[in-house]
Structure formats: C-alpha cells, structure tokens
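Summary for the funding panel

The consortium committed to producing paired sequence-structure records for every protein in the target list. Below we show the first two records in order, beginning with the earlier of the two.
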Amino acid sequence: MTMPPKPFWSGYILYDYSFSDFSPATCVVDVGCGRGAQLEQVVARGCRAIGVDLDDEALAACAKQGLAVVRARAEALPFRTGSLGGLICKVALPYTDEARALGEFARVLAPHGTAFVCSHGPGYYLRYLVGSPLWKERFYGLRAVINTWLYAVSGRRLPGFLGDTVYQTRGRLARAYRRLELRLVEDTRSPSFMGLPVFIYQKLERSQKPTFTPATT
C-alpha cells in the first residue's frame, strides 16, 4: 500500500534517535534493513554489519552500496545462537509474527548484546483510522487494530493480507522481554496520538547467562 507523505508522521518521529550506538568491531544485524540507512551508520562506526530483509529491490540497493545483506525473515534469522553483539529493528516488528521474531532477537544476541527496537504503537494505526482522508488507509488502520486484538488474545492472526500487521504495546513487549531474558535499558518517549504511543523506541540488553530455551523456527 502507498504510505502517506512524510509530513503525516513528521511530528511523531524522533529524527535524532540513534540506532547505531555500538562499539567499533561489534557484529550487528539490521532486521528489516530497507535500503541501508542504519547499516551505513553502523559501518561508519567501524562495526561489522549485515542487513536482513525480504524486499529484493531494497537488498539490491544495499548491495550496490557495498553493504552486506541477506534475504531472510525476522522469525528465522540465519545466525548462530549468541553470535551477535548488536541488533537493530526499526519498525519491522509490526510486520512479523511478533513472538517468534522477538525470540529470534534474543537467540542471536550474545550476553550483554544490545538491541535498538522501534515499533508501531496503537496510536500509529489509530491515526490512520481517524486521521487519513483515504478510505483505504482508514481500512488499513481498522484491520491492523482488529488483527492485533486477535493476536494478543489467541496468538493467531487474520487470514491473508488482513493479518499482515500488528501494533505493539509496552505491556505486551515487557512480558515478552521478561520471558526472553531481555532487559529494557531505555524507553525513549515520543509524541503520542490521542494519548496513545505512535512509535515505541526501546534499547534492550541480553542477560549475562540466558537460561531460556529458544523456540525452534
């Protein structure tokens, strides 16, 4: 679907938020790397970085810039357990099976590994629902809300394209972090819509000695 012009969201985005605050030589994966904006930043800091995405055009654009990329899903990352010191996921989590993707984030991070995760809160889709002049975007907001409610209650999603998107809540994320032994280091607040978060910016750290068993994907 065609996304609305940037001014639609410009008042809600933290443009100065850093997703690249890693020590030099850290092995970092960018899950949902797009055309490589964050990859370029972490490489410039001296990190070893690889991007993961499903968009072939975006991957090709990264490759043309000399960036390392691989086609893979967030729910099945092609990396060894505990092999990465850093992870970035900028608004890709809403388009995944959230529980499985977060499980993979926890699995691939080494002890004390750091993750920067930005998610869509309920205000993101509510703004589509009540603030967009286009009926297709209002319907997109509505189906995302309904799909998230179903997913939160049953772990299941609507069929087909109806179930392709869920929003995140701080409460549901916090429960997942506890289960996966991820520590919330920073929760950076950003402007809300009708009192609900639009974007959720969080920094996480892997526990020193994980005891949970990663799910098989």
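The next record, for a separate protein in the list, is shown here:
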Amino acid sequence: MSESDSGKELKKKSKLTITEISWLFYDWANSVYATNVMAAIIPIFFISYAGGTDTAWAFGSSIATLIVAVLAPFLGAFADFRGMKKKFLLFFIIIGTSFTLMMAFTDNWKWMLVGYIVSYIGFTGANLFYDSFLTDVTTKERMDRISSYGYAMGYIGGSTIAFLISLAVMMVLGFDNPLGPKIAIIITTVWWALFSIPILIKVKQIHYIDAPKKGMIGLTLKNVWKTFISLIKNRGVFLFLLAYFFYIDGVNTVIHMATSYGTTIGLDTIGLIGALLVTQVVAIPCTILFGKLAKRFGAMRMILAAVCMYVLICGVGFYMGYSIESAPTSGNDYDNAIKFSQLLFFLMAILVGTVQGGIQALSRSYFGKLIPPERSNEYFGFFDIFGKFAAVMGTALYGFISLATGSAASGIAGVSVLFIFALAVLIWGRKIIKKSELDGGIK
C-alpha cells in the first residue's frame, strides 16, 4: 500500500512531521505507567498499605506478561487487517487506563492486584500496536531517529516530569499518607489518557492486508504460522532475534534487580529514587544521540556498542557488591566500603542511562526495517514474545547464582553471560544479518 508521507520528499525532510510527532507522544503518555505503577510508587504502596506482598506483585506481573506474550502474534495478525490496528490500540488503552484508575479506589490488596494485572495487560498490549505503527509513520531511513526520539520523549514525560509531579504531591501530603499514592495513580491515568489523543487522531494505518469477507480466523492462524516459518528461514532475522533475546533479557534483569541490589549496599528509598532519576535524566540526551550516531555508523554498530557497555555495567555491579561482601562487618572499613559502593551504584546508574533507551530504540527500529510493513503487527507480535519471555531467564539466573554462591555480586557477574553470548552471536552473524538488511529483510 502507498504511504501518505512517502517517497523522496519525506527522506529529505529534517523536521519531524505531525504524524511522527503524534506517534512520539504516545511514549510520553504511557511511560508514567512504567515508572509510577510498575517500578517506583505503587509497588511500595501495595506492600506497605494494602497488605499485599512482593511475591504477589511479582506473580501478577508474570501472569500479565504471559497472557500478552501468548496472544501477541494472534492479536497482531488480526490488527494487520485494514482499519483494525487503531481499534486494537484504542481498546488496550481504554483497558489499561480504566483498570489503573480502579486501583486508586480500593484499599483491598486483592482488588489492587486484579487492577494491576488487567492494566498491565492493557499497557503491554497497547505497546505492541504502538511499536508496529512505526512502519506507518515514517520511512526506513528515518526509523532509527524516530524510534530514539520516542524513547527520549518517554524519559522526559512520563518517567521524569509526571514522576516528579507525583513525588511532589506525596511530599506535600507526607510519604506516610496513603492518599499520596492514590493521587499518583490518578495522575498516571489522566497523563496516559490525555497524551494518547494525538496518536489516536493523527496516526493512520497506511500498510495493511485486505480483510477477507469470510474465514478471517482461519486466515489469521495461517498467517501466524507463515510468519513464524519466515522468521526461522531468514537466517539474518533469526540471528538478530536470537541475540536480541539474550541482550534484552540482560537489560530487563538490570532494570528489575537494580532496586533490590541497591538495598544490599544500604541505599534507602530516597537514594534509590535519586538513582532512578539520574538514569532517566542521562537517558534523555543519550537516547537521542544513539539515533544520530546510528545514522552515521549504522544501527548494528551502536547496538554492539551498547551490549559492550552492559558488560562493563555488570563488571561495575560485581565490583560494587564484592567490595561490600569482602569488607569487615563493622567499623570504619565497613562504612568506607558502603560509601564507595553507593558511589559506584550512582556511577552504574549513569552508565545504564547512556545505553538503556538507545539499545531498546534501535532494536525496535532495526527490526522494523527487516519486516514487511503491511504485516508489522504480526511480526512485532513475535518480537514482543522474545522480549516478554526474555524477562524470565535473567532474573532466574541472577537468583540461582546468588543462592548457590551466597553472593549477590556473583549473581550480577552471571548476568554478564547473557550480554557476552548476545555479543558473540552479533559478531559471528554480523555479515548474515547485514546481508538480510541490505536485501530488504523478509519479503
């Protein structure tokens, strides 16, 4: 199908189009959910005030992740039919925002958990269609730049501005007042819903498959199988996804384990929130920079650079933990070891900020270049599966090594294996992956 902003004119433009800007704003819209609900504020409220446990919260995340991962290719296949992508996006935004809001009006941890599970399904489901719209809003030549701007917008908006507003409200009311987190939930809902309007109004499904008059379910199942086979047969795409599975697992593990690892070196809630903000602030310019450098050096080289940085981050994390574990248990030497480790933790937060947004943004755009645009939802559905199931292995590896050795530092060192394996796949299969890219990916 033809594109509205297609051809040579869009390639020559340096300024963002209204369609691209409207797409970018959804990252600004939904990132507040990732920060307030998934990471920083609501988990503490759920455990401290609602009477739930971190185990229940973890299981809730796993259930929601599993549901979306299993359904993603089938939802994507349906959404590739003409006029369906926007409808699915709207449906999951409504589900996500409605059940997020529900959490503000209950003090029962079980109902809060239900609200979280369903809202998380809405959040991750909507992201599937948001990601796939990348092929509709811009050209292949601009994808790295636009995808990077998207992640940067997310860090500025939901992950920083809305997060700081929520913290300010809680400070005014007092951190011990349960009304503060409830207002933070309302802020999350309003922010997400309000800034979703541009993508719903201005972005259109340009690439699509004509829907059959009958037999849509059968055709959908057939397309899902066909897509799976095409991913396996195209060696370049398969090798990229294999490497992505391992390095994104490492990225997710660093994100998920940062808080608990920080507590082992004596950081309190304020210190952990400060480290989180450092990561977000550093990530804003660095994510944009990654997009610019990808244009000059190539997306694959920048992904390789980011994976190497994560190996270094794991090394810093190991040394940070080791300096605590090997220090005396009391006295000045122990206090100095704690201070040194906390300094290293903030250094690690800075290093993570330099690459976290960039590696995710370029992975999304690089995959977008390798797939047929008219079936982007379906392919991004499989891309989503790799990302979701990858969230399990790294945390399990960290936990197993930590328990077996009695050392959290060794657990962090073990996570580096994921990045090293991904690095080996990318280096060994680089020519094959590059050839697939030059050939236009999957036809």
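Regarding this second record: Residues 332-370 form the longest helix (39 residues). Confidence is low (pLDDT under 50) at residues 1-9.
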